[in-house]
Amino acid sequence: MMTICESNVAKIEAICKEFNNDKGELISVLHQAQNTFGYLPEEVQQIVAKNLNTSLAHVYGVVSFYSFYHDPQRQTPHQYMYGYCLLCERCRKGSGRV
């Protein structure tokens, strides 16, 4: 478990305040926090939950549901994310060479 220094706590709180501590803006807050820190450890999620007056379970549920959030408990942060498609139409057009 990582500890967050006071200056980083202040950054997270400022991000939440930027969105008026509105829990309806959770996804926007998480995007901004991830852009600031590179990933979303549990400590960041706890501070976001507290400032948006929502549960940690709700914040974690959003982080774990969307693949574009990086949570070190689920995976290590990656610089690039790759996806691929297994549709037959694309396979016939030569996507297997990629």
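Above is the first protein from milestone M3; the second protein from the same milestone is given next.
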Amino acid sequence: MAAKKLDPAVASSFVKTTKDKKAMAGKKEENKMIIKPRITEKASLQSEVNAYTFIVKSNATKLTIKDELKKEYKVTPSHINITNLPSKKVFVRGKWGVKSGMKKAVVFLKKGDTLKLN
């Protein structure tokens, strides 16, 4: 059996569209400022009083976080606090390592609003 050959113009357009789709999928993730919720004992206690903690990108601002919360969760925060957590040196299994730092945001909601976190 002979293998079918594609027209070069058709083949090149197929490759471009596949690459474009992959590039566009990556760009959608780049625009998100909220990486994930930070679920700790302290954060769970704060969530009872409508304060939710998220890990955010290092270039995130209060306005970008507010806009993303409106899009993703459809709630408007009353105010937002942002903290940079520094990296720390740790000693594990006989070797020194680094525990990476992060930026976190504590989002305060109005009295009736709640968020359902996964």
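Note on the second protein: The mean pLDDT is 84.
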